[in-house]
Amino acid sequence: MDRRFTLGALLALTLVVAAPAGAGAAPNNNNSAKLTQAVTVAGIHEHLDAFQAQADANAGNRFAGFPGHDASAQYVYDRARAAGYDVRFQEFSYDAAEDLSVLTKVAPPPQRSYLRFIEFLGATTSAPGDVTAPLTAVDLKIPSTGGSTSGCETTDFAGFPVGSIALLQRGTCTFAVKVANAQNAGAVGAVIFNEGNNADRIGLVNPGVTGTTIPVVGATFATGDSLRGGVTNGPTGNTVRVKNGFFFQTLTTRNVIADGARGDSGNVVVVGAHLDSVLDGPGINDNGSGSATILEIAEQMAKVKPRNQVRFIWFSAEESGLIGSQFYVDSLTAEERGKIAAMLNFDMVGSPNFARFVYDGSDAGAPTGSAAIEDLFNSYFAGRGLAFEPTPFDGRSDYGPFIAEGIPAGGLFTGAEGIKTPAQVGLYGGTAGVRFDSCYHLPCDTIANVNDTALDQMSDAAAHATITLAQNTVTVNGKRGKGNFKPKPLHAAGPASAH
Q1: How far is Cα of residue 181 from the mean position of the Cα atoms in its chain?
Q2: Catalytic site residues?
Q3: What is the CATH number of domain 7-98+248-498?
Q4: pLDDT tens string 201-215
Q5: CATH number attached to the domain at 101-244
Q6: Spatial distance between the Cα atoms of 474 and 41, rounded to a whole number of angstroms
Q7: Nearby residues of 456 by Cβ (< 8 Å), 6 or more positions away
Q8: Could you say which residues of the chain have pLDDT below 70?
Q9: Which of 88, 131, 334, 467 suits 355 as a labelling partner, its CA being 20 to 30 A distant?
């Protein structure tokens, strides 16, 4: 396959690890008011700058099992240890299978890069390759009521410009037949998109093609529709880049686990964030923002003597399928899992076109106690006149393995590939019709991609929830705590602007 770098080359790069800063001067930030004041954007940026430097020194990423992540894990380990935590690495191996495919509209302007796994994906069985050429539509049926025959007959390619990329639609014959016909007509690549005639034919196509020599990607109906330039047969007027390639390797990586030295070890609050990035970029919002936030909270809680033990975990290989968090949960005995009172998850808390999303603890699949965690965040935002919205536990972050074991969970999220609505602009500002994070899973997810207003507000809410549950989990699991720290529930729905 076409790969721009190898693991061996990456391993030869230097790990950049910042010297740990001592936490000896940290005050006893033992309540929400003190801790939220102590947790600052400047402090979080110190960690984000380190993560950016580690990615810059290591092929531009912090992918689990690669040197950039190793450097980040060592940095977190050193900082947490200097703050007085009992820190350990939890090492594991996993089979990395990363799609490196690319689909980009190159011309005319504006250029647009489509999101892998969301708007398109590579065909695992097609030939590797990387081509840029004019895009030609082949007998598309739009609007479709079913029965598209795009590319099924050689006559569909009458007049097809040799050297073009074929835009094909799902339907009738096999993907292999469509691609073989395109290749024989002189196509140098192919984009196959879904038919769009019903809900099952709108999302991603995963085309299985063998025996061809041109690169192929599969796409959603919306992606294909946007690329066709308004035509159903013939040149679309668009020039596109199609790259098909995959990375397969068994890698060794590690979670970082930091236990507070004080508090009831039989009633543990887990505060988690994933530390790894995708292979394509440094992952500073996704999820340097969450990782840096919980590290700053940990440092500012260094002198706190909480009622309950707080365990900070920086998970690895989340981007490859929640592998690090699943490994951690699987490593626990039933008794150890029973000692976890709550799991707080912070994944992307600095999106540039942000919203304030709170995981919906009232979801049907959410364990008992999760609604109380949601209420803790909601009450915090409502008390400050800040709008917020629920977001479902959709299994896309590290809370997943915890809630599967019945452990109450909650957390915050500022948005990824979703599109901000005009109504949300009224609540949060920003730009309608634009993704919450236009650099999601892309090389541009750098320090410049982080919104400091979002980071400030969400880190304060994260700190508030962490210290509150560190002192009292009575609303979550009935365990008594320090009375002064009993969470105040949000009794009323409140104004529309607060939800």
Answers
A1: 38
A2: 318
A3: 3.40.630.10
A4: 999 998 888 888 999
A5: 3.50.30.30
A6: 30
A7: 41
A8: 1-26, 480-499
A9: 467
